[in-house]
Give the backbone structure.
Amino acid sequence: MVAAGMARAAGYRVFALTIDYNQRHRIELEAAARVAAMIGAERHVVLPLDLTRFGGSALTDASIDVPGEGVGEGIPVTYVPARNTIFLSVALGWAEAAGAHDLVIGINALDYSGYPDCRPEFIAAFEAMAEKATRDGVEGARFRVHAPLAMMSKADIARAAADLGLDAGQTWSCYDPTPAGEPCGVCDSCRLRAKGFAEAGLTDPALA
């Protein structure tokens, strides 16, 4: 939401892409639709791509529990193998088809769970790949992957949402929602969200 809001504020036209990868926190698909509408996206594509066929993550394999005690050493089981590479590759295909060369992704490498595909060096490598992998790149166009939140704290992101006039209550973060559709409050994503709002001195509108 904040990354898209920043792009809109910078004068970009916004086309929103949501990947329905059959994630266990499917409630985030509803949030994505709300956010796309709030941002004023000209088009919102929801693309089915069932990553449960691969498994390998607590978010795509119901037999793997989402940790509720915080993240320890190493890459957590909530890491979805190559997820951001897959998502950006799909976005790259749509961008080239639409004649666009700017991709925006809301990854964060400062307050995050240790996922390798949230780091600036991943973004740089993807841009280099896009130059070699596309017709437009071969013909001289430069694809840019904007990751404006990469080096921001969660508190900075919460403040940015408020400054942009965006309703963070429309977003969803929890990896393991309750049967009633409420945030679990203990998964790493919930913990990082709560930490960010607390450090920003703001109330999370989703919990107000």
Remarks:
- The chain has a mean pLDDT of 95.
- The two ends are 19 Å apart (CA to CA).
- The longest helix spans residues 83-98.
